[in-house]
Amino acid sequence: MNADLFLRDMTQLNSVLVTGGAGFVGSHAVEYYAEQGADVTALDNLSRVDTLETADESRNTAAYNWEYIAENYPDVELVEGDIRDEELMEDVVEGHDAVVHTAGQVAVTASIQDPRTDFEVNALGTFNVLEAARKAESDPAVVMASTNKVYGDNVNDIPVREEKTRYWYDDPEYEDGIPESLSIDDCEHTPYGVSKLSADLYVQDYADRGEVDVAAFRMSCIYGTRQFGNEDQGWVAHFAISTLRDEPLTIFGDGKQVRDVLYVKDLIRAYDAFLSDPEGKPAVYNVGGGPDNTTSLLEFIDLLEEKTGERTDVSFDEWREGDQKVYVTDIARARAELDWEPTVDFEEGVERFVDWYENR
């Protein structure tokens, strides 16, 4: 699908702050706005590799992207700092007309092991961003990277059927995926889901009271170039890199769990659609590849073999806490309100990732 079909008459942003600017999603936001000629500031504390139990220096996304930005976009201001620092956030937000807030603790596993840090980064850190935006004379619009984990175990209350290589919804109400109206209450959550939901609710409150033009984007599985996934987070990249390196993979569960997947550049287009024209827009969006871009873990291993000619050893372990058998995003609100939908299908996106990794 041609992305030009979805170009709109939107305000050109002049000065953009990206929190978590060395992260996978954040670095693509930095690149997107730098390419548009905006003045861009990237803020990151470069801690990601230290907070994920299974990460190592060979998969240090932040270090790689920090260097990538410095080499390719020397006009971008790089600020090493932490969103938990209230005074710093007030200083750095001022003067920008948009904030892309992607900084956060990103893994369910880490949140279970250290829930206090998870809360302080995701909930308090987002509160600091919102307060800084509220106080800033430059009056920036804000987007926040939320997650489908805010729905907790309610997702698993939807009936599913088991097929040969995947699970799928067995309720016609959800044939287009999970809408924003699915309940967030009366269910089990993980600490990660709770901290992100807390941030998400603060976003809605600040939007509803007219304090900040802000929206939370509840993301499904985002993938793409410059992502070094691992067992804790970023499973599409983790599976692809493990296959290319001939490193064994562990699947938690039976591998039939299904996710919709969205190429990262399409995600940034969704962010920009809100930031460039936020007035009157809803404050919550489910964003992902939707029903047309889904895969199970087993199906993805087959696709990787088709694209690379390689197949690594796979073992299976118990289901992990907080996992969902099926999560597919209903993107109807984003399509209607933001004039947006995915333009990169999954096979093309995987080819882009493999080409990048082999030639980086």
TrEMBL record:
Stated family: Belongs to the NAD(P)-dependent epimerase/dehydratase family.
Domain NAD-dependent epimerase/dehydratase: 16-288
Classification via PANTHER family: DTDP-D-GLUCOSE 4,6-DEHYDRATASE-RELATED (PTHR43000)
Name under which the protein is recorded: Nucleoside-diphosphate-sugar epimerase
